From TrEMBL:
The active site is at residues 146, 174. The lineage of its organism: Bacteria, Bacillati, Actinomycetota, Actinomycetes, Kitasatosporales. It is found in: Cytoplasm. The record marks 57, 120 as: Part of a proton relay during catalysis. Pyruvate binds at residues 58, 214. Catalyzes the condensation of (S)-aspartate-beta-semialdehyde [(S)-ASA] and pyruvate to 4-hydroxy-tetrahydrodipicolinate (HTPA). This is 4-hydroxy-tetrahydrodipicolinate synthase. Keywords: Amino-acid biosynthesis, Cytoplasm, Diaminopimelate biosynthesis, Lyase, Lysine biosynthesis, Schiff base.
C-alpha cells in the first residue's frame, strides 16, 4: 500500500535480509543433484543466509524443467526446514505459464515468489502491470518483482512499481535496474521491500532504506556479505563500508568480468569441493585462467 510517509520507516524484510540467489547443483551427467542442493542450502543457512532464492537467473531457471523446479523447492525445504525463507523464481515471458509455476511453487512449499518482468516480447508498461497483477491475483504467496532490464529488455518503471505496490501480495522488489534514483523514489512512496540484486549495491541500497540483498556472490562468501549488514545495523558504518569494499574485487570478478554469475559461482564452489557441478548449455564452464582469477579474488576476501 502506498503511503506518503513510508520513507520515515525502513522497509520491512518479508523474506529476510541476507538472501542468496542459489545455484542449482547438477551431477556430472547433467541431471538435477538434489542431495547436493540440500547440502549447499544447509551450508548457506549455517553461514548466515536467512533466505534462499531458487530457480532465479543464477539458478539457471531457463534450462530447468517445471518438475525440476518443484523438486528443488521440496528438497531445499526439507534441508532448511523453517530456518530460512524459500523464494521461488517463477517468472517467464508467458503469463499463463508463470501462473502455473506460481501455483506449483506454492504447493511445493515455497514462502514467496520471484517474478521477473516478461522478456523478449518487450510489452509496454500497461501490459507489464497487467501481467504482474494477474499472477498476484492467482497466487497465494507474497511476491517480489524482479526488475532486470539488462536481461529482459523491459524495465518495470518506477511509476509502475508504485501502482503495483497497492496489491496486497506484491511486497518486494529485487532491484537490478541500476537506477538508484528510481529505487529511492519508490522507497519513499511505497512500503515495498527493496532488495539489492547487484552485489555492488548491497550496502548502498541498505543504507537508504533497502531490505537487504539477493546475492549471487553469497553462494561463495555468505558470512562475509551478512557481516556487512550486521556492521551497519550495529552502527559501525565505516566498518560496513570496509567490509563491502573488501568484497568488491570478488564481486567484480564474479559479476562483471564477462561470465554469467552461474558460471563463476559454480567455478568457485567446485574448486572448494562444494556442490555445484556443470552448467547447462548454452552456458559453458569457466576456463582455467578465469578460475584462477576467481580463486585469487576469493582468497583475498577470506584470508584472515
Amino acid at each position: 500500500m502506498t503511503t506518503a510517509d513510508a520513507s520515515a520507516t525502513p522497509s520491512r524484510p518479508p523474506f529476510g535480509r541476507a538472501l542468496c540467489a542459489m545455484i542449482t547443483p547438477f551431477t556430472q551427467a547433467g541431471s538435477l543433484d538434489l542431495d547436493g542442493a540440500q547440502r549447499l542450502a544447509a551450508r548457506l543457512v549455517d553461514e548466515g543466509c536467512d533466505g534462499l532464492v531458487l530457480s532465479g537467473t543464477t539458478g539457471e531457471s531457463p534450462t530447468t524443467t517445471d518438475t525440476e523446479k518443484s523438486d528443488l523447492i521440496r528438497a531445499v525445504r526439507e534441508a532448511v526446514d523453517e530456518r530460512a525463507s524459500i523464494v521461488a523464481g517463477v517468472g517467464t515471458f508467458d503469463t499463463r505459464h508463470t501462473v502455473e509455476l506460481a501455483l506449483a511453487a506454492e504447493k511445493a512449499g515455497a514462502d514467496g515468489l520471484l517474478v521477473v518482468s516478461p522478456y523478449y516480447s518487450r510489452p509496454p508498461q500497461d501490459a507489464v502491470e497487467a501481467h504482474f497483477r494477474e499472477i498476484a491475483d492467482a497466487a497465494g504467496l507474497p511476491i517480489a518483482l524482479y526488475d532486470i532490464p539488462g536481461r529482459t529488455g523491459t524495465r518495470i518503471e518506477p511509476e509502475t512499481l508504485i501502482r503495483l505496490a497497492e496489491h496486497p501480495r506484491i511486497v518486494a522488489v529485487k532491484d537490478c535496474s541500476y537506477d538508484f534514483l528510481g529505487a529511492q523514489k519508490v522507497l519513499g512512496r511505497t512500503e515495498l521491500a527493496f532488495y539489492a540484486g547487484c552485489d555492488e549495491h548491497n550496502l548502498a541500497l541498505y543504507a537508504v532504506g533497502g531490505a537487504g540483498y539477493v546475492s549471487t556472490v553469497a553462494n561463495v562468501i555468505p558470512r562475509h556479505l551478512r557481516s556487512v549488514l550486521d556492521a551497519f545495523d550495529a552502527g559501525d558504518t565505516a566498518g560496513a563500508a570496509r567490509l563491502q569494499q573488501r568484497a568488491t574485487p570478488l564481486i567484480e570478478s564474479m559479476m562483471s568480468a564477462g561470465l554469467p554469475g552461474a558460471v563463476t559461482a559454480k567455478a568457485v564452489l567446485g574448486e572448494l569441493g562444494l556442490p555445484a557441478g556443470p552448467v547447462r548449455a548454452p552456458l559453458r564452464p569457466a576456463g582455467r585462467e578465469a578460475v584462477d582469477g576467481l580463486l585469487t579474488a576469493y582468497e583475498a576476501v577470506t584470508a584472515d
